Amino acid sequence: MTFDLIIREARIYGGGEDTSPLDIGITGDRITAIEPALAGSGTDAGAEVIDAGGRLTTPGLIESHIHLDKSRILDRCSASEREGRDHMQRVSAVKQSFTVEDVHARAKTTLEQCLTHGTMHMRTHVELDPNVGLRGFEAIKGLASDYRWAIDLDICVFAQEGWSAVPEVDANIVAALENGATVIGGAPGYDVDSAWQIDRIFELAREYDVDVDIHLDSGLATDAMDIHQVLDLTEKFGWGGRVAVGHGTKYSSLRPGDLAALGRRMADVGVALTVLPATDLFLMGREHDHAVPRGVTDACAMIGHGANCCLSSNNILNPFTPLGDGSLMRMVNLHANVAQRGTEADLIQCFEMLSSRPAALLGREDYALRVGGKADLVIWDAETPAEAVATVAPALFGVKRGRRSFTREIPVLHRP
Questions:
Q1: Are 324 and 68 in contact (CB under 8 A)?
Q2: Region 281-301: what's the mean pLDDT?
Q3: Measuring CA to CA, which residue among 323, 360, 351, 357 is closest to residue 118?
Q4: Residues forming a β-bridge with 50
Q5: Bridge partners, residue 63, by sequence
Q6: Helix (H) / strand (E) containing 358
Q7: Domains, the chain, ranges and CATH?
Q8: Collapsing DSSP states into helix, strand and coil, what is residue 247?
Q9: Residue 288: DSSP 8-state
Q10: pLDDT at residue 45 in the model
Q11: What are phi and psi of 164, to 5 degrees?
Q12: Which of 115, 125, 234, 268 has the fewest CB atoms within 10 Å, i.e. is most exposed?
């Protein structure tokens, strides 16, 4: 068999109990062989060869909740001081300055960072408030086309600053859905009528047959939570498996029994949760001057109750999250620390929240390294998923659609 690319000595994640290194043969954009010491007629003739050296090899990671359109804007709106809570206002004040070219350039830089950290699938949320209109959407549509060689990029459109009393928002969202947006979202916590917004999201989801992904239940008080309306509508309309919510910081304040009940209900109905550790840590508890609550929901606990949970970056280098480099491995390590999860089983579960679990959330049915499957993979400087999470292992090589998409050189010590 003739191959275009051969990965030697890959320790394949998800390959069963036997984790002995194997060779992966790639022809075109598909995996055409997985064998020990791959050999055969014409095996190496003209094929590119990458030596994985027994390192962990996985499908590309999945960023299930990020905001490319408003990343990297700290040069025009700095983060607030420690006690400040005006993050949205700071961003809102500069959104009118966004142009298609500006959004594309900033998002491109962030996207390329994500790529070199092993991300190959992404859902980005794009704001359509009147102060930015459809400019961000047009920019991200162009970016998705430009970088199709490296990533599968889904666009979720929503209003950050209110929808129910802003007719222009509704028109913008409908226009985006008519022109390629594949997911509809929202931020009902910033709306004067949150229930109306959630109803409208599901109405449009059904009309355009798209998935739902809503920013939900930010804060710490649990006396009023919108998740119950989302669960009821998901069940009513049969949208199970097509609905996700992001943040859910209020769930971090629930007593164990209440959290268990919520997790079971989310599992039964088919609503997934994406926890956003960096943003939630940065924003929550600012009214406290001591014993500051973390405000990060324990995704591992929710999985234990049956819910599908993922981890993601959310914002990068803006007032909501003035830190970050697009590394999902850093994000999962952060969550493991916050949630105090350190066993091998815990860390493997954490890795699943960057891989197989968001694959289910995004409907990526062909997400596995197998013969006949897509040739999308990443080689990590680690041997196991648990080691990769524990050490924030760097991604060394990426292959997307059958061709090398990035390389990171392995550091070398120059001893005297």
A1: no
A2: 95
A3: 351
A4: 7
A5: 122
A6: helix 356-362
A7: 5-59+368-407 (2.30.40.10), 61-362 (3.20.20.140)
A8: strand
A9: -
A10: 64
A11: -60, -35
A12: 268
- Tokens at residue 301, please? 């606990």
The residue assigned the tokens 């992001």 is: 246
Selection from 138, 123, 7, 18 nearest residue 65 by Cα: 123
Q: What's the CA gap between 332 and 61, in Å, rounded?
A: 11
The pLDDT of residue 260 is above 70: yes
pLDDT at residue number 17: 66
Both tokens of 218, joined, read 């930010």
**C-alpha distance from residue 214 to each of 233, 236, 335 (Å):** 13, 17, 21
Q: What is the pLDDT of residue 16?
A: 64
Closest CA to 72 of 109, 35, 43, 97: 109
- Least confident residue range of 35-44, 198-207, 318-327: 35-44
In which element (H, E) is residue 155 found? strand 152-158
**Cα separation, 328 vs 311, whole angstroms:** 8
What tokens were used for 8?
Answer: 């030697």
Beta partners for residue 407, in sequence order:
397
Count of CB atoms within 10 A of residue 128's CB? 26
Q: CA 29, CA 403: separation in Å to the nearest integer? A: 8
Looking at residue 369, what is its pLDDT?
Answer: 96
CA 208 to CA 219: how far, in whole Å?
Answer: 31
The letter for the amino acid at 346 is D
What's the rounded Cα separation, in Å, for the pair 47 and 272? 41
Q: How confident is the model at residue 119 (pLDDT cuts 50, 70, 90)?
A: very high
Average pLDDT, integer, range 326-339: 98
Secondary structure E strands in 43-130: 48-51, 56-58, 61-66, 119-127
Q: What is the mean pLDDT of residues 34-53?
A: 79
- The order of strands in the sheet holding 152-158 is 61-66, 119-127, 152-158, 183-186, 211-216, 243-247, 271-275, 309-311
Amino acid found at 213: D
